[in-house]
Amino acid sequence: MNTNTANIPGRSVTILFCVLAALCEGIDLQAAGVAAAGIGAEFKPTPDQFGTFFSASTFGLFLGALIGGRLADSIGRKKVLVASIALFGLFSLLTSFAVDVQSLTWARALTGLGLGGALPMLLALVTESSAVRHQSASVAMVYGAMPLGGAGASLLIMLIATSQWRTIFVVGGVVPLLLAPLMAIWLPESAAFQRERQSSAALRAGSVMALFAHGRARRTLLLWASFLLELLLLYLLLNWLPTLLVSDGFTRVQAAGAQIGFNLGGVLSAVLIGYLLGGRLRNSATLFVFAVLPLLLVLLAKSPPNFNIVAPAVFVLGSAVLAAQAFLYAVAPVAYPTLIRGIGVGAAVALGRIGSIVGPILGGRLKAAGHGPSQLLMDLLPIVVVGSVCALWLAWEVTRQGVDQQAGDS
Asked: Is residue 410 part of a domain?
């Protein structure tokens, strides 16, 4: 029986909770970047220390995605998701009590464990709770809630004094801690997962080797490479863009405003790409996004330091970067059958987190080496080009082979 037969009220509740959880995740993912000015003023970290701090949560994300994905194929999506949300809420709140760069970095690393465990579960639950024709749109809508949460964090930092940066982490902790018990009570478990766990085939659940079986090897490798390179770009920009803009002569408020534009562009494009992925313009939309992404990076790098020019450039770049991410997050869960969806999505997200770790550190190293904002962005161009080629190859591979419907999705 297909997941299309799931009751509509249960499906709606699942999607609603996943959207709310994604909003919380978006706040916490971008908390470090938007609080950077206040952290810098209080603790005065070096560029390398800043890079390590930015990457700390993504190292936790890497481990959380692997562990969470594996557990989800054994004990269920709901348990892992609720526990992960409570975990990142708790450690985000504890981040606000940091007394130096070291304690700040450790708190962010532990926050990342929860963030990493939550994201694959959001994708798996939404995919398994949506009708086939709406899967891409539903996943993209949930993913689009993440930059919306990030925009909320940027808006908050505009409204408070730089010295009150800890407020960002308080909000990022309290909100998910309130959400977790509500999800524990009312969020339904994936019906598709429950059916498959009752079958004899469940003995094969969660096998990493299964990601390379039945012709999935090339698709898996392309998915991993695309996640790694695209997330390297995304997290470098999320963490360093406000700092780069300030160093280019913009005020803190202008930098935060541009960051809001980056996120709002991503929200709009994620919803749009989700709609297009479910229709006949799927291939054209995918080609356009990945072809234009390198051009937009060059556009921002070469833009003069004029806010009226840079702000729109940041907006359209954010639209393209997050549309690319929405495509990858929509493809990942449908690339694998139910029995290995948790580990499949978790592994892809975890490999992407290597890029998330490298990105902020790379930004710190380039800045410490004296690279200005324009030069630093141009340094990223080869990475963006290779990532776009891998993603386009992945899109062709998925279109050619079709969605994997083996072992329980038929």
From this structure: no
